[in-house]
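HOLO CASE FILE
Compound: nicotinamide-adenine-dinucleotide
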Amino acid sequence: MTARKTILVTGGAGFIGSAVCRHFVSTGRYRVVNLDKLTYAGNLASLRAVEGSPDYRFVQADIADDGTVRSLLREEKVDAIMHLAAESHVDRSIDGPGAFLETNVVGTFRLLNSALDYWRELDGECQAAFRFHHISTDEVFGDLPFDSGIFTEETPYAPSSPYSASKAASDHFVRAWHETYGLPVVLSNCSNNYGPFHFPEKLVPLVILNALEGRPLPVYGKGENVRDWLFVDDHVKALEAVVTAGRLGESYNIGGRAERTNLAVVEAICDILDRHRPLADASSRRALITFVADRPGHDRRYAIDPAKIERELGWRAEETFESGLEKTILWYLDNDWWWRPIREKKYAGARLGHGG
Ligand code: NAD
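Model generated. Tokens follow.
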């Protein structure tokens, strides 16, 4: 894509989507139209930095609302869709999988159809430049043993949870719309993100805030499950590389080369907080760690090989796990205006967040 393109970001009021909106607007190279239904996970407070910008517009709508999506695509002359809207929490998908099918599968299908009809109306040059970028997860690849294996773009899909099954299905639909109808798509599958503006029911923010408040720090099983961790702003830079320079029809694995057990993540948070906010008796917050019954179908390990995006698109994670985690913790310490209203409303310690 050349400069000054209009991007439709779906799910732009969520954790990663809001980081996409903030970054893309800040570059001055894009107009960003954020389409979000504002479910429990959507929060316009995450967009304060851009809400007054002439390069930013928010529209509250469902991705499945074809009428609104189609007229928005035409009215804004959209050059690319970055599709992040989803139900994203694994534990919620176990309690109630229906919403995951509705949004992640049916919603993506309807969005693809709206995009295809719009794309067909474009002239040849705009058709060639158009992109539909589906933002997906490494969880579609399923379970790895603790001691071997790594996900590449060729790894067969083997999702374990209703969440990952719904994301796998949507990945397949996106590929099919490319192969069957010629829609110019790119896909990316990323590992666990963490960073500022992360909804406080997910593991990292939940543990930071519980640890600050002296509450128990719940860890599934023995805390042995391994995930790869990526700082959200590094993910956003990777997404920019994929949507602007990714090869058509290709998928790119995105990861931080930072595998950690859940227990190591929780302990690292305790240690950083102890350094920045020592307890009066100088004890360690690790004492708050509480092991709880494991989640059903809990994949042991995810490990991602980001060699393709590094080689082809020159992207590389800039933060180490330790530097990114420290930045994240300092952000939560400085920005209680953002998380306190959410915590106080209904989520204080309510859930254990090891989700997607
Ligand atoms: P999130 O739950 O924080 O945000 C999702 C956003 O989508 C919310 O703002 C919500 O209001 C919106 N939304 C939900 N249903 C909608 C609908 N039907 N129509 C319009 N908007 C709707 O999610 P996130 O963590 O920011 O993840 C974004 C995307 O990235 C998801 O597709 C997820 O699968 C993927 N992903 C996330 C991670 C991670 O670690 N968080 C890792 C890899 C991939």
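CASE NOTES: Residues 10-11, 13-17, 36-39, 41-42, 62-64, 84-86, 88, 103, 107, 135-137, 167, 190, 192-193, 199, 356 surround nicotinamide-adenine-dinucleotide (CB under 6 Å). The two ends are 30 Å apart (CA to CA).
CLOSED: yes
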